[in-house]
Design brief:
The complex is a heterodimer of chains A (about 280) and B (about 325). Chain A has about 280 residues and is of the alpha/beta class. Chain A is built from 9 helices and 7 strands, in the order ααβααβαβββααβαβα. In chain A, the strands form 2 sheets. Chain A has a 5-stranded parallel β-sheet, sandwiched between helices. In chain A, strands 4-5 form a two-stranded antiparallel ribbon. Chain B starts with 10 loop residues before the first helix and ends with a helix. Classes of the chains: A alpha/beta (about 280), B alpha/beta (about 325).
Amino acid sequence: MTDHELQLKAIALRRAMLQLIYNAGAGHTGGGLSCMDILNVLYNRVLNVSPQTFTSPTRDRYVQSKGHCVEALYAVLADRGFFPASDLDTVCHYQSHYVGHPTRHIPGIEMNTGALGHGLPICIGMALAAKMDGTKFRAFTLLGDGELAEGSNWEAGLAAAHYQLDNLTAILDHNTLQITGHTRDVMSNEPLDEKWRSFGWEVRNINGHDYAALTQALTEPSGSGKPVFVIANTVKGKGVSFMENVAKWHHGVPSEAELKQALADLDATEAKLKEAK
Amino acid sequence: MSAPAPSMLTPAAKATAEKLGLKMGRANLEEFAATLEELAKANPNIVAVTSDSRGSGKLAPFGKALPKQIVEVGIAEQNLVGITAGLAACGKKSFGVSPSCFLTARSLEQIKNDVCYSDVPAVLVGISSGTSYGALGTTHHSLHDLAVLRAINNLSIIVPADNFESRQAILAAAKATKPVFVRFGKAAMYGLHKPETKFEVGKAITLRDGNDVAFIANGETVVHAVLAAAQLTEKGIQARVLSVHTVKPLDTEAILKAGRECKAVITVEEHMVHGGLGEAVASTLLQAGVAKPFRIVGIPDEETVPGAQADIFRHYGISMEGLTATATKLLK
């Protein structure tokens, strides 16, 4: 799939995500939009996993540590055929396994996450298992800005470097906002590149909406024997003009009129993309 | 020079143990470590994960013999449980080994989500549990662990009484396809079982029969119940002793049988009286309409008395003498 095709797919995925959040009456809209391009590249270009190979011991593992953005993951997994898209009509409904955070009840999901600061330690266990067995699979996790205040990430930061887990990639969805506002105001964590580098990681600082940059950062093997930390600079609410960089869309649910406006924004972007082609 | 550890048993209790033919074994923790090493030598898929705890977990020989099957995470219990879960999710039979006080408090959320909710077949081993660390104080005691873990879905909780139960618990945990928590103390324990005894997770073992009073106990307290039962015989009181090594799933059948057949029930545990074995037994009995004179012997809801484990046990009546007195009083 070309970058252009993936960009068009991202429009469809954002549409599906917004629609399912609207239908569910709940969801994490801003962060879902900010990490959608990352997930799109992971599942359509990087991860060695498919509905057919999901039970293979050698599949790549993806653990979404920022589990609250599960709606983006649901949209991507449905698109990849892990389950019928119609399942998404049941998100957050009584007796539906499609709850507001990832669970292993859903085909394609590796671990139950949602409490923050859990994905990185789990992925260390996975990456260690691969090393012990001499298998080549890679482990990926997606972290949020606010999540980095959880101390368990830093425990894991030490351990991954200690064990030289070059088969582990942590991706930060660096949209710089969290539920209360700017991360720099809530609990400042910069300079993140220096911090992770000093912990013994190979740091890649990229535009998290640039398909070529994402592809390179997520596919290129660690050249240093170190785990890779990708700082994907993103925009919270990306793709919907009135949601971009607005903290209240962290878990804001669009009204009918807002959904219409958001979809119109995406239609306009799609038309421009098609024209550019 | 450190003060010698006080004996767990008074001279009278020791004499009773001798009369019963009980033989002193090693610490349950040592039995665990030896069993795990034996299993891991035969199965390279077994991995131990430690948090600077291989010494206190008696796993230093394991680490020397099987360096590729042990993962050290440093003093980082949250990381320990997450890594243990990740290993288990990728097909490893992982044992996360850390002092129970830290494992079940600091990393409770990882136990709940990464292991139990995610349903990976990891084994969590709480070492030096209960008051094993004695005079090191409350920071190092785990008197809450069973209460918090009982409130988490999808976890078997095992509290072995002696070396036999410890070995059997590890053999069972190694085969389990679901999450398991096992708790081990570090005092040398008397052997309480005949070698032919059948061990099954979730099934209590009757160590002594009697219909006057039932001692329903687990872990390092069981021996005291056995000795008290022997003492009570001399007073014409026949005591039943159940070793309820599995707190969850609880053997409600054996508990209800004991409640229905005995005149009184006493539970004994190395845990706070809230949320542990005692309240689990009380709930089982009451919900079945079995109301008998009942006492929970454990650590009360107060700042635990300073002292070695033996001092703490005696202070709170977890001793042959204390349990004999509790039973006598309850039956009056």
